[in-house]
Amino acid sequence: MLGFTGTWHGQPVSVQGSGIGQPSLAIYAHELFSEYAVQTVVRVGSCGALSEKLAIRDLVIASGACTDSAMNRIAFGGLDYAPVADFGLLRAAVEASEHPAASRHRVHVGLVFSGDSFYPARPELRQRMVEHGVLAVEMEASALYTIAAKHDRRALAVCTVSDHIVTGEQTTAAEREHTFDEMVEIALTAALPG
Which CATH superfamily is domain 3-191 in? Predict the structure, then answer.
């Protein structure tokens, strides 16, 4: 898995691929925190809108992450752990998104659903999540938030809506490659204020 270190506005920044899904991300997050003493991880990536409140290319700043993964149920002996973002990062990302030049698309703050399956066997179960305020589906935030909490580190997920589960609308691969930079700017501004 490739990782790179460079600078953004003169500050060092590392970018690390994490693969797809919570098990893959969990390996990288654990090792970044435990082996490399990384203090802050911000996941940037795509998500699927579960609510009609969202549109293609809207941004979702994940305050917390629900999941169908068994990772936390195993780790917590069947108890329900509620993985949440670091509040300082969350607040900084919201503030960065409110800057007139920063946000060309609508920004939503709320829950995401970290699914274990890209093609779920029972997609109708997601409706229950939507009825309780879940905005979008992605595949990594729940594990990231849990592992960051375990290591007393900071974590946040900022996602761009690449496809809409309700309407069927979706972006092309080229659009995802060239038009999702807004979330990266917000993530960098939140993680590296100053």
Answer: Nucleoside phosphorylase domain (3.40.50.1580)
